[in-house]
Task: structure prediction
Amino acid sequence: MPETTAVVEMRNIKKNFAAVQALRGVDLVLRHNEVLGLMGDNAAGKSTLMKVLSGAYIPDEGEILIEGKKVHMADPLDARRLGIEMVYQDLALANNLDVTSNVFLGRETVSAQLIPIGVLDSRSMEQESKRLLDRLKIDIPSVRLLVERLSGGQRQAVAIARATAFNSKVIIMDEPTAALSVAAISKVLDLVRELKAQGASIIIISHRLEDIYSVSDRLVVMRQGRKVRDCPVTGDIDEFRERVVAYMIGARDDFANAVVD
Result:
């Protein structure tokens, strides 16, 4: 399949919560081996849209296509089976478990099945976790370290590694650099670049335009539940910021024509 083919297409996605229209007919395309930035003010609908894509929400209207085939997702397990993983802002890691246990949480490898229990293949999982961290160039001294002993950047890396461990087609990251130090932000962005270099398709939700500008190929801006701009990430960062902010605050509106520049 050509790399220009869309891995994800979301068409006319609508989602209401009682009287609140969270999504008002949103279209979104993610191409193979692309990093797509998703921006918007609070309550713009970006997280809701990604929760629809990750199976956490079922849309009221619209359709989702994965590699050209229409799919229906009833829950996050359906999305995971289709190769869609989401790394939430709170990471959802178990701090009292080690790196390996977090990578394989809910998908443990069993070496023997002794009814009614199974015997975990700890050695195999440790080896696979080490291989995964090495492949992604993640610097963590040991996969046996408890997550609570890791830095914020290392925890984010573990969460991302877990999302990529099972042949994911799409990785969604919700504010991956929030509350991190400058050094940790740099390492997380390097990890995004490494994932792209290895052929991943990635969507990043972020309030930090500098991060989007640094790693994204394209940007989608949302406001009030609509997509108001879809454009390549190009040009001078100051000029780019000015245009993006204008769409975010409503100084420019392209509700009816939110297409790629």
Residues 255-261 have pLDDT under 50 and may be disordered. Residues 6-94+168-249 form a domain with the Rossmann fold fold (CATH 3.40.50.300).
